[in-house]
Amino acid sequence: MVNFEMFIIMSNKEVKAALKSAREAIKNKEFKEALKHCKTVLKLEKNNYNAWVFIGLAASELEQPDQSQTAYKKAVELEPEQLLAWQGLANLYEKTDQWDFKVELPNIYQKLVELYASSDKKKCYEVIKKLSDIYQSDKEYSKLAEVWLQLVQLKEEEAVDKKELVQLLQQMTQLLSDCLNEEEQDNETQKHIITAFEKAMVLMDPVPGEEHKKVSADYIKCLSKMPLEENKMKVACQSMLSLYPNQSYPLEVLCSHYLKTGYLDEDAVSSFTKLLDLTPNNGLGHLGLGTKALQERRYQDAIKDLSQGLKKMSSTTGWYNLAEAQFKVHRYSNSATSCSQGNLIFIAVISEAEKDPVLLVLKGRAHLNKGQINQALKQRPDCGEFYFLLGQLYWDMGEETRKDRSKAHTHLLKAAKLDPHLGCVFRYLGHYYRDVANDYGRAQGCYKKAFQLDDDDAESGAASVDLSMRQEDMDTALSILQSVIEKATPGSAKWAWMRRGLYYLKTGEHQQAISDLQAALRADPEDWVCWECLGEAYLNRRSFTAALKAFGKAHQLQPCSIYSVYQAAAIKQTLGKFKEAVSEYLQITAQQDYVPALKGLGECQLSLAKTLMEDCRDGGAIDLIQQAIQNLFRAVQLRPDLSCLWKLLGDACTTVCIVSPNKARVLVPALLAGLDPNTEGHMLNQSQVLKAGERCYAHALKLMPEVPSLWYDLGINYYRQATKPPEGDQTSLSLLLEKAQQCLKKAVMMGSGNHSHWNALGVISMNKGLENYALAQHCLIKSIQVEPNNVVAWTNLGTLYLKKDNIELAHKAFKIAQSLEPLYVNCWIGQALIAENVGSYDTMDLFRHTTELSTHMEGVKGYAYWVCSTLLDKSNRDSELYRYNILQMNAISAAQVALSKYTERIQCDPDAFIMLGYLNEHLQLKRQALQAYQRAVELLQSTSSSEELAFSLGCYGRALCTSGQWEEAVQVYNSTPLQELSDLVGLALAYCRAGLFPESISAYERALAVASSEKEKAYILTALALLQNRQVHCAEPISESLLCLCAVGLVHGDATLASAALTELLKQGSASGNVVEQRCLLTCSLLALQGNFSAVQREASRAVHSNPGNASLWALLSRVVPQYYPRKANGGAVAGHVACLSSMTQGKRALLHSGVNQLASGRNSGEDRHKNALKTMQRAVLLCPDDPATWAGLMAACHTENTSCYLSGSAPRRQALEQILMSVVSEKGIERPLAQTLEGWVLQQAVTGLMLEGQLEQAEALCTQVLNVSPEHPTVMLSLRQVQCQRLLMANSGTVLPDTVLEQLNNAVMMNPTNLGAWHWLAEVYRNQGLLVQAVMAYRQSLQLASQLGVHSCQVASLLRLALLAFGPCMAGVPGNEWQDLVLEATTEVLKLDSSPVALLFQALLQYVTKMAARETRRLLERLVYVPSQEFPVTVVQVASWYLLRHLHAKNDQELMNVLLQHAKMNGDQRLLEFHSLLASSSS
């Protein structure tokens, strides 16, 4: 016994050990080893649960599913309530793809649900989800419902939220709703669905609510699919209606149910009515009422409601009922159609009624609808419907069967005899009598009969009306239309509305026509023909915008319709939208040669040409005239019988008379030019084109000789030819004028009531060559008598009186013309000529007014003459008249623009070119002035006017001097007689600038002999003194001499001489104009030479304040600010903007200065998108594209933008522009002294930009490329060394540059001794290498250079950089005082030059480093923090605030710290507040 107990104890230990070993083996994935241990266990304990579970798991992993299943099942038998085996079985069945396993898997899940229900709810829900998916995929809806109810029950036991239960129930209903679509429905599942819906609606809150409404609708939908739950469905619908009375869905379900059952009681009718009250267009409601009407034998109501319902929805039952109702009222054809729409559902009914003739007809109709003609013909009932169908069939078969009386006609007559109430028979009989027999009387009778039988027969009604109108029986037609329209509902009877609208359109009652056509379109909005008719009605009513929309809609519906496009183009032409009209005409002519479109296209192009001519844009006008001629000639070729086309062609040819003969060269077809038609087009000059116009008018007169306007046009053409005679042919002038006079006399004889004819005859009669003034006066007075409000005739009459020197009558005539039409420019020109004749002060004002009204050649030249005359008179500069006429009215610019147009058109007037050159000189347009004077010289060289030629040559020479062409100027001046002082002085200046000083001195001495006044002699002596570098004594001292003396002192750096000369100059009293600017410039230069840089800005500001209207002073202020006082750069930018607004001449250069100021102040697009340096420089480039400085400024602005992007962390947007802009600057002509400097700066800028982008290789390649062209260029060598140095430093951040490299860098800088930036760069290299002494020497060298050059900003920059360099060792605590002394020395020098916040900050920080706790430290820092100055940069204030906070924190001065923090809050310094928090936390 003891041995047995010992055995038991030993076996239990072995079992536990073996199980532990098996568990470890499974954990280590040694499944075979695990099986061995489990078998050991089973030998000792056959029914060990864990051993069987382990065997199942190991066998499963070894892919032995059957053995695994057996082991798990054995474990389940041993312990059915244990989870492990069931879980193992579930895992095994899930991963093994065997059908028997899949079958058993739901049972396993079900057992797991039972076991988890009491232990682990979460896993229970997961298993239920898996079980639900299986039942749903297998469509076992009953079991699916039980599982979901079990889940809901578990959730209820957990007392979860109502919302979660509602969601579960909704999911359950959605999953189970699919079972309702199955053919065999399970009653048990239906009950579960109902239970779920009822529970969900009980738990829902709020009621009523959107969620409750949705669930109620779903509940009703499910009930409607359950045939046995009719009562519940009705109750649910009523319940939902009580809660949601505006919802139509429950009513729709009820109505659908009633229609389906066919049982229509009072409740059903009430439901149909309520549904239509809620939704009037609901098809179910109409179908229900129609079906009820059919049951009550109200067939017409049934047809109406059923038809309306079937329009909204298709229903087999509805079509059936409609066909039955139509059948009952003998509308067999309509009934058959309804049968066809219902998919021939009557075939079965018809097949059972072989003896019913009507049904036999319907059956035959059904066969016809299916295309079974033979089967249809087998039906032979004695019925009118049958014979009608047979007659209709013969009619539709074609023309031959229609004309055969034994077929269509005979069968239709028989149908009419058998059924005289069948309206469609009479309609087809009407077709036969109208189209075949041509018996309109019988046709009319048949159509009327058909329409009487069926007033819905639109075809019969329309045919009857059309026949009545054809027979001009309008009363009958209107009565039919009126009767139809009175009965018509909105959106119906389109044919009646349209025909009545067309009738009203024909009779001119446009408003009524529009109303009727709009009503027709309500019935069919897609009828493009109706839209075209409506467009016609609008057009006749002159409602052009509405007509355009109507024709546009018609074209949209029917893109192939040319008519709608043509009408739209014609309307746009009428409205003056010629460009849009041209595009639409071209759209038509591209498709076909449509003559009206070609005519309209030519007219529009001619109108556009005239518009361009009014603005003197003659080149574009000639192109348009040429196109118009081509298009009109195409039209003439198609319709040579149309006089209007020939007339338009003549107008196009005659229009070229306005432009300059040089530009009036037109390519015309060979036939029109009177040449061989087989050849191509020919280029004709102005005279030849006018001659072609004469032939066109003659051809038009051959077609219509009695039209006076054509004689008028021909006469005008002859007159234009007379004013533009061929070169060398003056003999034909009188003959052409005589022909013009005869033609206009003919026009007057045929149309004496036309005032234009009389006016033209009067103008031609007083022309040179006829000069019949009496006849001219008679004709013009006659024109006025015919049309008293005739501004042209009054103006021409005034011109006649003016020509005869009758000033008083001329003034009266022009005055009357002005009162009739104040905008007519010719009468104002007449008044200006009178004022000029009598010497009135208003002359210039009158001429200016003419240029404002329009560009008229006579007015333009008169105004330009008076502007130039006023400018030449130097004595009136301070007069009120000059300030108003020239300055306030911007006369120079206005006259220059107008005269430019004049010379474009009239290119043979040397006086105009001389005046244009003079005006261009005043506007600083040097190249344009040069071209104008050159053209004047060319014109005068072919004339005999030597005096005028000499004057123009002098002007030409002066323009050449201004543009820097000194050698050419010398030649031109030498070609003059050299008798005038201006010519001699100009020659002397040209010699001087060309480097020919002896010749210049000689010329000045000749000029001195010619000079008449002492002042002139003083000027010449001053020039000689400058040339010979000697003092001269003038009898009459002049300001120019003092100006020159002061300038000489400034050039030689002699401040004493410059100051003395300037003092004497200022003693001469106040100045004006350019003298003020010169004095201000000299004063600023002297102050800069003396080193008083802040006074430079103050002096310029004082001058601007004294002369606020002087744009040159504003430009000067904008120019000096960035150079001498960059702290005021924002003000400098404003000054430049004011200069731009004040003067166009100064504004171009001032715009560049404004951009430089914005660059100096760092204004970029990140700060201001609209006012920044880049925008300003772009405008400057647009205004002055030939100025290299503007392109250089644009380059600097782009670099600023890129730098700003790098600082803000965003990607630069203006990359790869450096080399492009550099090449642009190099291409511009630069004066030699500045060329190398500017090119070097541009190269440095480009290299800097490339280095900023990290493109060092490209930068080095650029430098190398430039060196190949200019090997001795020091700036290029410096840039190359900078790039190479940067590459060496970037290759290894800790690189120590060899002494040889440093020596090369130093040599490169020494080659550019005046480059301050180079010294700064070298100092920075030394600092990076730790060579602080060498860096200090480099900064001192740059400081010395800046002082020598007098560049104030560079002096400050060098001193501040030196201070910053010395401040580093101070901060690092290097012993000794030499670095502290250097900081104090540099900052003190900066403060001597100007107030500098940065210098003050350095001094305060130095005090902080050396004596942190001292009171002086706080005082210096507070001076930077609390001083309310906008000029202090934000960075300086913030840095000072941080150090002040550290100082106060170290002293634990809480009161002052609170003051500082409050100040930071007021100024939004969030970083200081954060810094304070860090200090507070670190100290605690």
Automatic annotation (TrEMBL):
User: Where are the annotated coiled coils located?
Assistant: 151-185
One Pfam family recorded for the sequence: TPR_8
GO annotation, cellular component aspect: Ski complex
* TPR repeat intervals: 49-82, 494-527, 528-561, 791-824
Instruction: Supply the alphabetized keyword list.
Output: Coiled coil, Repeat, TPR repeat
Key word Thylakoid present in the record?
Answer: no
A Gene Ontology biological process in which this protein takes part is: RNA catabolic process
Q: What is this protein called?
A: SKI3 subunit of superkiller complex
